[in-house]
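This protein record is not my work; I was only asked to verify it. Where you disagree with what is written, explain briefly why. This is what I was given:
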Amino acid sequence: MMLTIPDLLRPDEIRQIREALDQAAWIDGRETAGHIARQAKDNRQLSQDDPLAAKLSDFLLARLGESPRFMAAALPYKVVPPRFNRYEGGGSYGDHVDSAVMGVPGSAHKIRTDISATLFLSGPDDYEGGELVVEDTYGSHRVKLPAGQLVLYPGTSLHHVAPVTRGARLAAFFWIQSMVRDDGRRSLLLELDNAIQAVSRDLPGSPTPARLSGVYNNLLRQWAET
C-alpha cells in the first residue's frame, strides 16, 4: 500500500525547518550507506550525531504522533528517528531495497522496516527531477509531493530517487515497524477504519460503528505483534 498524508507540517513550520537546514553541516550520504547502497547513493545527509538532526527529528516524531491518518495507516510500534537528506547537482539514489532491520542510533534497539517514509521539505517547483520512484506489483509510481506532505510505502519495495538537475531537494526519511507486519492486512484495517469513520459521520446514532469497531479490534488483536 502506498499512501500520501497531506499537510503534516504547517507552512511556517516548513519555512523554519528549511531555514535551519540551509545552515546545516551536510556530509556525504555515502558515509551512512552499506557496501551495496554506497555504489548507488549520491546525496548529502545530516550526521545522526548532529544536534540539529536530533532536534528536528524529535519535532517530527511529535507531529507524527498527532496525525490520525499516520497512526491509522502505519499502526506504528517503533519508528526509526527521522533523518534528513539533500539532493542537488545531479545527485540521485539508484535502485535499492531498504535494509530489513535498522539500528536506532545511540541505543541497542533494532527496528524491522515494514514501512518506508519520505517527508518532502522542498516544493516541487524548487527543483527539477528528484522524483521518488517506487516499483510494486501494479507498476512504477513517481512521487513528487508538495512540501510538508508525507508518503508511506512498503519497505519491501524496490525504489530510487531520480537525478536532481536543478535546485535542491530536501526531505526527511525514516522507517516504521508496524504492529501489523503484513502490508495486505494493514490495508484491510485502514479500509475498515475509513468505513467506520464514514458510517459514524453519515449515520449518527447508529449502532453499526460500534459493531464494526469490534470487528476492527478483534482483527487487530489477532494480527498485532508487540
The longest strand covers residues 164-178. DSSP finds six helices and 16 strands in the chain.
